[in-house]
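Here is this case:
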Amino acid sequence: MTHLGHYPEGSRHLLMGNEAIVRGALEAGVRMAAGYPGTPSSEIIENLAAISKDPSLHLYVEWSVNEKVALEVASSASFAGLKTMAVMKQPGLNVAADYLLHLSGSGVRGAMVLVSADDPGALSSVNEGETRHYAKLMEIPLLEPGDFQEAKDMTRWAFELSDAIRNVVLVRTVTRLSHASGTVIMGRVPENDKQAFFKHDGFIIDPNEGVVMSPPVEYKHGEQHRKLKQAESLFENSPFNTYTGPDTPELLIITSSICSLYSREAVHMLGLESRVGILKIGTTYPLPRQLMKKHMAACDRIFFVEEVLPFLEEEVKIIAAECAADIGVKTFFGKKNGSLPMVGEMNPDKVIAALSKIMDTAMPQRDAAYAARAGAVAFGGSPHREATFCPGCPHRASFFTLNTALSMDNRNGFVCGDIGCYSMGVLPAGFSTLKTLHAMGSGTGVASGFGKLSKFGMDQPVLSVCGDSTFFHSAMPPLVNAIHNSSDMTLVVLDNSGTAMTGFQPHPGIERDAMGDTAATIDIPAVCRAMGAEVRVCDPFDLHHSRETLLELIGRKGVSVLVLKQGCALSPEKKSSRRYDMRVDETICAGESCGCNRMCTRVFACPGLVWDKEKTKARIDDVTCAGCGFCADICPRGAIVKKEVA
């Protein structure tokens, strides 16, 4: 069990950025936390859930069905006077945005912090959309920690800020901060068993005892702007805004978040400490005007280092334009003038290259021998392998079935997809089966629309896929829509019994909750039947039955659902266990002369199947094989043999 709740005050510990955020929340006295799993945010709720049973911490933690619900659940604790937190990754804030617009208007009672973990470079996402603009859109304060100590201290202070202005505060972290580690000095975790009580009998617009709602606009919106002004005033003297460098630098770097570390490294590598100043902003919105004005007045050239979009750059330029009479005309460098790329993750090399050009300074040269060795290790030390499903992954079997069934149907049918491990269905790993790929649940929504196009002559079979967690997150509403509007489509639920992509977090179809307690389960097939769909359940490792069932369903009119249920091979329940011992009978395998075009190793391409170049035969990699047995069904000669493990 994690010790995050019991590290003594003043002690120093190596913490991941997400762990530091958790410790900061505990030091603030958080009582409720809710979220939806998504890399790089997942460890925040995971760590809080791990200590939720500690009676001294008075915690309730849950994985909610989606991010909007997580924000709603967390806000309830705030309305009852408790300190609370909602956690999600960057696309999740899009899901929560509807409620956030109302919540920012109504304000909160107990302190409430919203943590959004962005993923510049889309390292574990399908987009790198960032959340800073939501602070401006929703008119709430935005904080950005720049290192691991700040991740803790700023999270704690975010609760204090929320308490002071009575509104939600947005804290933005990024992958390289969330998942890297650094030394953090602990503060005190308070003892607090405050009673929750929702006051609702006061005057209707009383913010503390009346109805919690966003209208009337004139009063509430005015209050929201007053809170922002209050936050801006507090930001003027915030310890999270720091300056290092000469009093009158030749160039001022304005930066935030993890980019502040890249900026410091670049200045140090180029030996520019006496010429370049770094203004690290932790309170990104609203910007402290007087602080910005003071530092811009001391320098004529300004360089912005941030990721992804030029949010900080644009906000500072507005202040510079409004204060031009006092601070003079400035020359700006950043994303807008092409000094730094407008997309992708930032890193020290990009900052060093831009800074050396701006300051007309030679870049440090990497030792040629070292560069050669590094290249050999990076590109020559391991065999190249395309992105693929894990050995024994039920999704590979499911997509093989989908692909072959649609080929046999021969009506040019197609599959709409969304986000999860199964997104790789768009790649050769999934036999290029997916033909649309957007947000969670959108595959079913798009398929619902396609399924109404028969009136325009469209007669192609329309399918969608979603995972079991995605089904509860956002596939149920479009399924309702499809059934209600008599769409012709088949939803295939790839049920691998957990939120596998982010670490097997539970969802409403699992018998436990985030804190490990027994929970009521929601049966996916029963829900679909109750909605009015024709439903079948198959094991994706049973190729023939799954394929025949799918062919039956896509020949029907109306909405049908096929649940392909098989646990993830890496799940705690199945890991290190095999159903079958697999082998290739070399006397039967004809290799490249078979005529199957090496179906097993080239097409199906499970990592547990290996092409033996010397023998020109397929073989099983006993170390990698998960023993699912599916490959035995795809060999046309029956050369792959499975034996059930006793």
Remarks:
- The first helix runs from residue 17 to 28.
- The radius of gyration is 28 Å.
